[in-house]
Design goal:
Helix content is 18%, strand content 45%. It is of the alpha+beta class. It has one domain: Acid Proteases (Cathepsin D, subunit A, domain 1, Beta Barrel), CATH 2.40.70.10. The strands form two sheets. The protein has a six-stranded mixed barrel with strand order 2-3-8-4-7-6. A three-stranded antiparallel sheet has the order 1-10-9, with no helix packed on it. Strand 5 and strand 6 form a beta hairpin. The mean pLDDT is 86.
Length: 155
Amino acid sequence: MPTLSIHFQAQVPGSVVLAKQGFQLAVELSVPEQLEKLLIAESKPVPAPLRGAGLVDTGATFSMMDKEAVAHLCVSPVGVVTLGTAGGSTQSPLYPVRLAITTPPPNQPLLRAEFAGITAGPLKDCGLLCLIGRDILSNATMVYDGGGGHVSLSF
C-alpha cells in the first residue's frame, strides 16, 4: 500500500500551515488512456498533462478539477450530477480524467487512476488544480495530526 507522509515545516509551525492552506498534494491531470490512444491513432495531438495543487476536501462528495483544465484537456462531458452547495443544489457536468497524486519533486506517482466523471469549477483563483473529494478518499486511509502538522495518506 503506497503511503505519502508529509510533515509541514515552514517559517511557522506545521499546524498553522495546515489551518491556513489545508492538506494540499501535488497532482497531475491528463486525458483518459482510451482518449489518448484514440488521439494517437488519429495522429492528433495529445494535450500535455497539467500539474498543480490538489486540496484534500473531506466535505466534498465528488472531486473537482479547475474548469480551465477541462478546456486544456479537450474532454467532453459524460454525464451530469446534482451537487449540494451552501447556495443550494446545482447541476454540474462530469468529465473523464486521469488523475495522479504524486510525491513532492521528483513527482513520482503515488496513485494513478481513471475517473469516469469529475466535476469542474473555478479553482484556479484559489491556486488549485483540483479538489480531492470522498470519491477518491473512500479508497484511502488518512491520518491527520493537525497539532503536530503531520498528514499521511495511504492507498
